[in-house]
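Table 4 source record.
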Amino acid sequence: SGDALARISGSRIDSLIITDTIAPRADVLAEKRINVVSVAGLIAEAIRRTHEEESISSLFES
């Protein structure tokens, strides 16, 4: 939001990883140092486990 993209573009950041929980704008996708990671599989598995009354805490353990 605001001038965030300009600040990222002008920074010394090598890489910025974001998720696709909200679709990024085209100008964000055009920034070569921004990498979008899908969380669709994680959300789908959390929904499945919730539906099956299974634990979802193990999804977030490292």
